[in-house]
Write a structure and sequence with these properties.
Number of domains: 1
Shape: globular
Radius of gyration: 21 Å
Structural class: mainly alpha
CATH architecture: Up-down Bundle
Order of helices and strands: HHHHHHHHHHHHHHHH
Largest sheet: none
Helix content: over 70%
Amino acid sequence: MAVTGLRRAPTLALVTISVPPVRRVVAWAAWDWGGAAFNAVITTFVFTVYLTSDLFVDPALPAGSAAFRGAKADLSTRLGLWLAVAGLVVAVLAPVLGQRSDATGRRRRPLAIGTAVVVVAMLAMTLVRPTPSAFLAGVLLVAVGTIAYEVATVHYNAMLPAVSTPRSIGRISAVGWAAGYLGGIVLLLLLYVTLIPQGPQLLHLPQADGLGVRLCALVCAVWAAVFAVPVLLAVPDERPAADLPRRGILSAYRKLGADVAHLWRTDRPLLGFLVASAVFRDGLTGVFTFGAVIASTVFGFGFGQVLIFGVAANVVAGASTLVSGRFDDRFGPKAVIVTALTGLVITGLAVFLARGAGQGAFWICGLLLCVFVGPAQSASRSLLARLAPPQRQGELFGLYATTGRVATFLAPALFAAFTGLAGDQAYGVLGIVAVLAAGLLLLLPIRTRAAVRA
């Protein structure tokens, strides 16, 4: 069955929702808080940095030699390749699983399963010792965790209308994103003072065999598991949709194709937003993915300095996201996204121009970048939740995940292309800026309906 009634979707989807209890909002946001364990620690500031460090380069290669540098660069390339494969898997699974959760009304079960897989993957990371032979296992665990996390996020995002109202959906979405940033702050600080090499190491544990980083993965697994419990207990499943049959895989993809075609005929603004958001969300991911690389390779940050910057980045991003939620509800999510992307393009260019100005310049420009990342992410989710028709939240958030994953090659590819052409990693920043600018240009002509400012 093709998607119908999209032009009246925001009103129908939202006005029937009663004011949710505060405890339900808190429980929902707690999952984002716990998700920081995987986002901030595993994929951004700690475990992937660990995997691409000197520790996984063949010790027979002379340190500082061309062969050594080439081998280290190869680690980043292989990591990017496996994450691209993970993105492809998510693109394949997300729309089907989203349709199934719409048909059954069940959000909690697939959210619990996805979270459990992420937790198990992080537990297994504690076994990854710093040897070249263990690199593949470490990267595969990151890829598996990424797949599970992204699939779980489809169902988590689809719960947003159940914990918000037409007048609060922007603020509630912002609360979730801010909770994720705040969780990242607390967890990074905790790990920095106890386990991270170059930190105070208050536990005084031996650092041989990457023990500190491996124990970080253990703490992250416990952290994610504990904070996933509230949403599973407090946010109820919806009633099964009577008009949505449970479909097999092939049938689900036939329906997906029909729905995309229907969107093209009846609601091109929504389809255009999905395309534009796929591009600029990849640019947003690139800001954090390559931010630590730029900080260390271009501006000379050490491992501990990168972590402290990560804490500061989460503070700034969390605060700006909370503030942006009110602007979202007052002026509409598109206005917030456009403002944020414009700010990101300008500050991204400032980072490039400041490449020879020292670490202080990166602190200023890098934190300015973080001011705009969270609001763009939060408002993007808010806009889709407002546009999604009733009983289609899981399906369209699955499509949201799919379109996002289709474009995941853009930021890594342009970062690598600009770096390779110039022979300088600082020029990779221009690749990320180009992706953000392209997303902004795609978004500008899209006309969103007045209902998204309910």
